[in-house]
Design a protein that fits this description.
Layout: E1 2-10, E2 13-20, H1 45-55, E3 65-70, H2 91-96, H3 100-110, E4 111-114, E5 119-126, E6 133-141, E7 144-150, H4 156-165, E8 184-194, E9 200-217, E10 232-238, E11 241-244, E12 249-250, E13 253-254, H5 273-278, H6 283-299, H7 301-306
Antiparallel strand pairs: 1-2, 3-8, 4-7, 5-6, 7-10, 8-9, 9-10, 9-11, 12-13
Length: 315
C-alpha cells in the first residue's frame, strides 16, 4: 500500500501515481547491515579497554563489601549490661536477646566504611657506579586500619569493642595482659554479583588481617541539628600482617598461594550438559545463553508448575 496515491481515468485507462511505503523491514534477516561487525571494524584503544573490562565481568564496586570479625578465643560477651539501671531499659532488652554469634554477625553487617590495607617494600639506596638503585631489604604493613560502624540505639557495636579492649588490660591493677590473649583476625571481602547465582553477592577477593585488636575506640559527636543522621562509631585497629585469601589462578596464571587456615573460594559451576558448554563461552555469551536456558526451564510443563526449579535433564 502506497503512502500517497492519486489518479485519473482517461478513456478506458486508469492512470495512477503514488509513493510506495518503506520496504526496508520486509526482509530484516537478510539486511546486509546486520552482517557487519559492531564498531568501526578496526582495533582501537577504547575497544581493547571494553574487551578487558568484559573479560573481568565488569568493574569492582567500592560499596560491595563485607567484613567478618574473629575476636580472640578468650573473648566472652559475659554479663555485659545486665545490671539494672534507673535510666535504661530492662537488661534483657539490651543484651540477653543478643548472643555472641549474633553480635559478631551484626558487627560485620553494620560496618559501613573500611580501607583495604596496603603493603610496602622497604628499600635502601645502593650505589656503586652510575645511577643508584633502590634495593629492597624488607617488607612492611601500615600496621593500622580504620573502620566505621552504624550504631543502633543501644550502641551494641561500641560495647562489642569495649569488651574486646578489656582483654588488653586489667582495670583494677592496670597490668597489661599477654599479647596472644587479645589478638584476633578480621576478613575484608570484595563482593560481586553472579548471574548463575541469581545475581547474589559472592566473594571475588578477600584478605585476612592477622593479630588484630581494637587500639582506639573513637569519640562520637552529638548535635541537636543532626535530626536525620545515624551515629557513626569509628574504630582504629592495629594488626601485624595480612594475606590474600582468594589467591589462586586467573586465566590459568598463578598469582599467589594460600596461607594457613583460609576458606576455599571456588568459581561457581553450572551442572548439566548445557551448563558445561556455557562455561566454555565468553562471559557476555554465557549471560545470553543462561537467559535462554532459564526461559526454557520456566516454559516446559514441569517448569510452569514449579517455577523452573524442577526441569528435565541436560539443563
Amino acid at each position: 500500500m502506497a503512502i500517497l496515491r492519486g489518479g485519473r481515468r482517461i478513456g478506458n485507462f486508469d492512470i495512477r501515481l503514488g509513493f510506495p511505503r518503506d520496504r526496508s523491514l520486509e526482509n530484516v534477516t537478510g539486511d546486509p547491515r546486520l552482517k557487519r561487525a559492531p564498531g568501526s571494524g578496526k582495533e582501537s584503544t577504547i575497544g581493547r579497554f571494553i574487551a578487558n573490562v568484559n573479560q573481568g565481568e565488569g568493574l569492582a564496586r567500592p560499596n560491595r563489601f563485607i567484613c567478618i570479625f574473629n575476636p580472640p578465643e578468650k573473648y566472652k560477651l559475659g554479663d555485659v549490661g545486665r545490671e539494672q539501671t534507673s535510666w535504661g531499659p530492662p537488661p534483657y532488652q539490651r543484651f540477653e536477646s543478643y548472643n555472641q554469634s549474633d553480635l559478631k554477625r551484626n558487627i560485620g553487617m553494620m560496618c559501613n566504611k573500611v580501607t583495604m590495607p596496603s603493603r610496602d617494600i622497604n628499600t635502601v639506596a645502593h650505589q656503586m657506579y652510575g645511577p643508584r638503585r633502590e634495593m629492597p631489604y624488607s617488607y612492611s604493613f601500615s600496621g593500622n586500619i580504620e573502620m566505621t560502624f552504624y550504631g543502633d540505639k543501644f550502641l551494641r557495636q561500641r560495647v562489642f569493642f569495649e569488651e574486646w579492649q578489656k582483654l588488653i588490660y586489667d582495670l583494677g591493677s592496670h597490668d597489661m595482659n599477654f599479647y596472644d590473649d587479645y589478638v584476633g583476625s578480621v576478613d575484608i571481602m570484595q563482593l560481586g554479583a553472579f548471574e548463575s547465582n541469581d545475581d547474589r553477592d559472592r566473594v571475588t577477593y578477600a584478605v585476612r588481617l592477622y593479630e588484630v585488636y581494637p587500639a582506639t575506640i573513637g569519640s562520637i559527636e552529638y548535635d541537636y541539628g543532626a535530626n536525620d543522621q545515624g551515629v557513626g562509631i569509628p574504630i582504629t585497629f592495629n594488626f601485624r600482617s595480612w594475606y590474600n585469601l582468594s589467591s589462586g589462578e586467573l586465566n590459568k596464571a598463578t598469582i599467589g598461594s594460600e596461607f594457613g587456615d583460609v576458606p576455599t573460594i571456588k568459581e561457581s559451576k553450572d551442572f548439566g550438559l548445557f551448563g558445561g558448554i556455557l562455561n566454555k563461552l565468553p562471559p557476555e555469551l554465557q549471560r545470553a545463553g543462561r537467559d535462554v536456558i532459564n526461559q526454557v526451564k520456566r516454559s516446559v510443563p514441569i517448569g510452569r508448575v514449579t517455577g523452573g526449579r524442577v526441569f528435565p535433564p541436560f539443563m
